[in-house]
């Protein structure tokens, strides 16, 4: 199975999570920044995982651009998962999180989410990640693979 983890990262926290997920997925898992992905290459991917930092309840513009390029033909019936990095603050919950929006977009284009969207926590806007988040990302990556089979 070829797994592609597509992400954007502003301060490096989401990149660390993306790489941990790809590492845990094993096999032919690769993590790429969203701007470096050729949509036509998705045909060879069995599992697509997309993640971004949460900004104003949304993914970053780079991930939104990637998602907007996707068509139903690109990901129909493809196994997918979505994640984000986020602050744990009550005011942030008012706007929502990027992972839910990523998941909804993928699902609307015909993809099949294999797990619920997941959020990984940072200590502040610029990070760093809260303790244990890399390990949680690795465990989540393994859960995705298990659910995909």
Please give a handful of descriptors for the protein shown.
149 residues, alpha/beta, Rossmann fold, globular
Short description:
This protein is α/β, with parallel strands linked by helices and 149 residues long.
Q: How does this structure look, described?
A:
With 149 residues, this protein is an alpha/beta fold. It has one domain: Flavodoxin domain (Rossmann fold, 3-Layer(aba) Sandwich). It is 40% helix and 21% strand. The chain is built from six helices and six strands. Strands 1, 2, 3, 4, 5 and 6 form a six-stranded parallel β-sheet that branches. Strand 1, helix 1 and strand 2 form a beta-alpha-beta unit. Helix 1 crosses helix 6. It is globular and about 40 Å long. The mean pLDDT is 93.
What's the SSE blueprint?
Layout: E1 3-7, H1 13-25, E2 30-33, E3 47-53, H2 61-69, H3 72-75, E4 79-87, H4 90-95, H5 98-108, E5 112-113, E6 118-122, H6 133-148
Parallel strand pairs: 1-2, 1-3, 3-4, 4-5, 4-6
Helix pairs in contact: 1-6
Largest sheet: 6 strands, parallel
Number of helices: 6
Q: Write out the CATH superfamily name.
A: Flavodoxin domain
Distance between the termini: 10 Å
C-alpha geometry: globular
Radius of gyration: 14 Å
Provide mean pLDDT, rounded. Answer: 93
The CATH class is identified as: Alpha Beta
β-strand amount = 15-25%
Helix/strand-derived category reads alpha/beta
Number of strands: 6
Give the SSE order as H and E letters.
EHEEHHEHHEEH
By CATH, the topology is Rossmann fold
């Amino acid at each position: 199975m070829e797994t592609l983890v597509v992400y954007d990262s502003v301060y490096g926290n989401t990149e660390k999570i993306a790489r941990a997920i790809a590492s845990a997925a094993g096999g032919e898992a690769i993590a790429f920044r969203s701007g470096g992905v050729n949509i036509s290459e998705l045909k060879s991917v069995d599992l697509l995982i997309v993640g971004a930092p949460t900004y104003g309840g949304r993914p970053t513009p780079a991930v939104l651009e990637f998602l907007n390029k996707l068509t139903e033909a690109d990901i129909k019936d493809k196994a997918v998962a979505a994640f984000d990095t986020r602050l744990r603050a009550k005011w942030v919950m008012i706007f929502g999180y990027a992972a839910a929006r990523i998941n909804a977009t993928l699902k609307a284009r015909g993809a099949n989410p294999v797990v619920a969207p997941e959020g990984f926590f940072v200590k502040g806007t610029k990070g760093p990640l809260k303790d244990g988040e890399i390990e949680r990302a690795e465990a989540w990556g393994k859960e995705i693979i298990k659910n995909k089979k």
